[in-house]
Specification:
Elements lengths: L1 E4 L15 E4 H4 L6 H11 L2 E4 L4 H4 L8 E6 L5 H5 L2 H7 L8 E5 L1
Parallel strand pairs: 1-2, 1-3, 3-4, 4-5
Length: 106
Protein backbone atom coordinates (compact mmCIF):
# COMPACT_ATOMS: atom_id res chain seq x y z
CA UNK A 1 0.00 0.00 0.00
CA UNK A 2 1.22 3.53 -0.76
CA UNK A 3 1.18 5.80 2.31
CA UNK A 4 1.60 9.55 2.55
CA UNK A 5 2.83 10.98 5.87
CA UNK A 6 1.64 14.53 6.60
CA UNK A 7 4.20 17.20 7.47
CA UNK A 8 2.84 17.47 11.02
CA UNK A 9 4.12 13.92 11.65
CA UNK A 10 7.83 13.54 12.41
CA UNK A 11 9.27 12.24 9.12
CA UNK A 12 11.45 9.73 11.01
CA UNK A 13 8.29 7.77 11.87
CA UNK A 14 8.08 6.71 8.21
CA UNK A 15 11.12 4.46 8.78
CA UNK A 16 9.02 2.28 11.12
CA UNK A 17 6.07 1.82 8.76
CA UNK A 18 7.40 -1.37 7.23
CA UNK A 19 5.89 -3.38 4.42
CA UNK A 20 4.48 -0.34 2.63
CA UNK A 21 5.71 2.33 0.25
CA UNK A 22 5.89 5.46 2.40
CA UNK A 23 6.60 9.05 1.35
CA UNK A 24 6.60 12.18 3.48
CA UNK A 25 5.39 15.68 2.64
CA UNK A 26 9.01 16.80 2.61
CA UNK A 27 10.03 14.07 0.16
CA UNK A 28 7.19 15.01 -2.17
CA UNK A 29 7.93 18.75 -1.93
CA UNK A 30 4.47 19.35 -0.46
CA UNK A 31 5.50 20.87 2.90
CA UNK A 32 3.75 24.21 2.39
CA UNK A 33 0.50 22.85 0.93
CA UNK A 34 -2.61 23.07 3.12
CA UNK A 35 -5.04 20.23 3.94
CA UNK A 36 -7.69 20.42 1.21
CA UNK A 37 -5.20 20.83 -1.61
CA UNK A 38 -2.87 18.33 0.05
CA UNK A 39 -5.57 15.67 0.20
CA UNK A 40 -6.40 16.30 -3.47
CA UNK A 41 -2.76 15.83 -4.46
CA UNK A 42 -2.25 12.82 -2.20
CA UNK A 43 -5.33 10.95 -3.44
CA UNK A 44 -3.82 10.91 -6.95
CA UNK A 45 -0.70 9.03 -5.85
CA UNK A 46 -1.43 7.36 -2.51
CA UNK A 47 -3.87 4.95 -0.88
CA UNK A 48 -3.56 6.28 2.65
CA UNK A 49 -2.92 9.64 4.37
CA UNK A 50 -1.32 9.48 7.86
CA UNK A 51 -1.60 12.56 10.06
CA UNK A 52 -1.78 13.74 13.67
CA UNK A 53 -4.25 16.51 12.75
CA UNK A 54 -7.28 15.62 14.85
CA UNK A 55 -9.35 18.38 13.24
CA UNK A 56 -8.90 17.15 9.68
CA UNK A 57 -12.18 15.24 9.62
CA UNK A 58 -14.03 18.37 10.80
CA UNK A 59 -12.26 20.73 8.38
CA UNK A 60 -12.47 18.58 5.25
CA UNK A 61 -15.21 16.55 3.59
CA UNK A 62 -13.24 13.29 3.68
CA UNK A 63 -15.85 11.17 1.83
CA UNK A 64 -15.22 13.45 -1.17
CA UNK A 65 -11.63 12.21 -1.37
CA UNK A 66 -10.61 8.79 -2.67
CA UNK A 67 -7.94 8.29 -0.02
CA UNK A 68 -8.12 6.64 3.39
CA UNK A 69 -7.06 8.72 6.40
CA UNK A 70 -5.52 7.51 9.64
CA UNK A 71 -5.18 9.98 12.50
CA UNK A 72 -2.53 9.14 15.08
CA UNK A 73 -3.55 10.12 18.62
CA UNK A 74 -0.69 10.16 21.11
CA UNK A 75 -0.01 12.20 24.26
CA UNK A 76 2.23 14.43 22.11
CA UNK A 77 3.56 14.63 18.56
CA UNK A 78 7.04 13.67 19.74
CA UNK A 79 8.61 10.79 17.86
CA UNK A 80 8.89 8.67 21.02
CA UNK A 81 5.12 8.92 21.63
CA UNK A 82 4.23 8.28 17.99
CA UNK A 83 6.50 5.23 17.74
CA UNK A 84 4.39 3.52 20.40
CA UNK A 85 1.46 3.60 17.94
CA UNK A 86 3.29 1.74 15.14
CA UNK A 87 1.92 -1.77 15.94
CA UNK A 88 -1.66 -0.44 16.02
CA UNK A 89 -1.06 1.63 12.89
CA UNK A 90 0.28 -1.39 10.98
CA UNK A 91 -2.76 -3.41 12.06
CA UNK A 92 -5.13 -0.64 10.97
CA UNK A 93 -3.68 -0.08 7.49
CA UNK A 94 -5.26 -3.14 5.79
CA UNK A 95 -8.78 -2.22 6.92
CA UNK A 96 -8.57 1.51 6.13
CA UNK A 97 -11.21 2.57 3.62
CA UNK A 98 -11.02 5.35 1.05
CA UNK A 99 -13.06 8.39 2.04
CA UNK A 100 -13.09 7.38 5.71
CA UNK A 101 -11.02 8.19 8.77
CA UNK A 102 -9.62 5.72 11.30
CA UNK A 103 -8.11 6.70 14.64
CA UNK A 104 -5.06 5.03 16.15
CA UNK A 105 -4.15 5.64 19.78
CA UNK A 106 -5.82 7.32 22.72
Amino acid sequence: MKLFVDECVDWRLSRDIVGHEVKTARQMGWSTIKNGELLALAEKEFDLFVTVDRNLSFQQNLPAFSIAVIVLRAPSNRLADLKLLIPELLACIPRAKRGAVEYVGV
